[in-house]
Amino acid sequence: MYRSIFSPLSSRQRAANFESYWEYCRDRGGELDERERDLSRKRARLDSFRRHRVLSRRPLSEGVFRRNRVRLQDDPGGMDPKDLLFANLYRFAYHEWAAVTTGWEATVPLARARTITDKIARYHVAEEICHGRLFLEVFRTFHLDDLAWAPVDPATQRVYRIFTRLPGLLLDQPAFISELLGVVFYRFVDGLLDDCLPDEPEARERVRELLHEIMVDEVAHIGQRRNFIGPLGIAVAPHLLPWVCGWLFGEMLGRMPAGSRSLDNREMVAQGLAFDYSGLPPRVMERTWVPTQCIPS
């Protein structure tokens, strides 16, 4: 049984975590290509997915998906569950893509990074950019070959530019909570795939494989972001969690497909507060990184 992500963390554990995480992410990601904002091993993995492409038997309802992918405009009760699920997933991934591509400008290039935390920050953003490419493969599984990330409106881009340049004292807690809630959301999406794609076994498993590839990094990011927060900050973080959840998701979770599982903002906050790495897919846990204070002795 893992310990809570909110468990106390000593200065010695923090130093060891930074070192072990830095070794882990370089081993998993490979060499950083600054010009392409890419990582060699992740590029190889993406190329493998593209070489061994899987296509759904039936595409998404393209007009419905495109109309609802940035802002939900149709009545969710009248939408096909598959279209609703992937429109919501696009919207979540789209905002992550907007944030990290803006955040890339706020991190120090690896050649000029002087501290291990600066190096980790650069790698972290590169990993998130790689996730944007993997998400597009999810949608291309449903025949959306020409799909790209929609341009970010100036107001949203300005918000992300301000957020990614906040000092650590203000940024570390919401960044940690965002990673935590993101994994809770991905776990929920993973659980919905069987309900929404009962007649698409090949496409369902390809989407799950892509999602797990992303989740391996995102689960590791929770512990990495936790490592930046001291005792006072981690005591305050649970009180910020409902606010960050509302900001990230709004009413989206109340407009997910109906299935055997349900998740609203209140339940998502409860799962975030109780997070201890249990209940995550074994295929994710065997490849991810967990901070020392959460590993049982």
Rg value: 19 Å
Count of helical regions: 11
* Percent in strands: under 5%
Q: How many β-strand stretches? A: 2
Mean pLDDT: 93
**Shape estimate:** globular
Fraction in helix: 55-70%
Structurally, the number of domains stands at 1
Q: What report would you give on this structure?
A:
It is a single chain. The protein is built from 11 helices and 2 strands, in the order αββαααααααααα. With 297 residues, it is mostly helical. It has one domain. A hairpin with a 4-residue loop joins β1 and β2. α1 packs across α5 and α7 crosses α9. 36% of the residues are buried. The model has no long low-confidence stretch (mean pLDDT 93).
Brief descriptors of the model:
single chain; 297 residues; 11 helices
Briefly summarize what is shown.
With 297 residues, this protein is mostly helical. It has helices at residues 11-29, 40-51, 62-68, 81-103, 116-140, 154-164, 168-196, 201-226, 231-249, 265-273, 282-285, and strands at residues 32-33, 38-39. The protein is globular, with a radius of gyration of 19 Å.
Give a topology summary.
Blueprint: H1 11-29, E1 32-33, E2 38-39, H2 40-51, H3 62-68, H4 81-103, H5 116-140, H6 154-164, H7 168-196, H8 201-226, H9 231-249, H10 265-273, H11 282-285
Antiparallel strand pairs: 1-2
Helix pairs in contact: 1-5, 2-5, 3-4, 4-5, 4-6, 5-8, 7-8, 7-9, 7-10, 9-10
